[in-house]
Known about the structure:
Blueprint: H1 3-10, H2 13-16, E1 20-25, H3 31-44, E2 49-53, H4 54-66, H5 70-79, E3 82-86, H6 95-108, E4 113-118, H7 132-143, E5 147-152, H8 183-187, E6 207-208
Parallel strand pairs: 1-4, 1-5, 2-3, 3-4
Antiparallel strand pairs: 2-6
Helix pairs in contact: 4-5, 4-6, 5-6, 6-7
Amino acid sequence: MDPATIHTIAACDWVRKGQPLCLIGDSGTGKSHLLIALGTEAAMAGFRVKYTLATKLVNELVEAADDKQLSKTIARYGRVDLLCIDELGYMELDRRGAELLFQVLTEREEKNSLAIASNESFGGWTKTFTDPRLCAAIVDRLTFGGAIIETGTTPTAWPRPAPSNSTKPPPADPPPDSHQPNSNLNDLEEWRLPSIVGGCQTPLVDEVRLA
Length: 211
């Protein structure tokens, strides 16, 4: 991924304009991390942001339809400035679920931004949306006037803490007045998940807006 492109979209102009963003790439290439980082940046900029998994959203819409609350639920998802949908394409959706998701996308079209992360290229979305015409309409909603970022096929090698060596003998006591620093401090290692955008390390949970 081009760092200049990442910093450009982190400025959130696409959110202000109500444009969509698609993150496409294989599993482990950082799509979810980037999606959450961009959502957090938008929330810190004052936008109202909601993050959800695709399957969770569809299940909520089906339950709302059964309870005759579908219009209210779609309107609620339509009001946020940025809706982040993760793991789109991981599971096949039946026609009813796909149609309900399409209604949410239509509610937001050209009004409020939408960002999605998917492990499938658009050509493979017919495995998720089995109706070809509905699949084409959904792809159109997600790409019209928006940006597509490909995260590639190589899994991201996130840093991991070094394994502890339980067989390592304890250090010898320093001689008196040697002023040797505490060896425990030298062995201390701290690992934090590196952030792609703006140093954000706080996960975006459900809906957030920062003043």
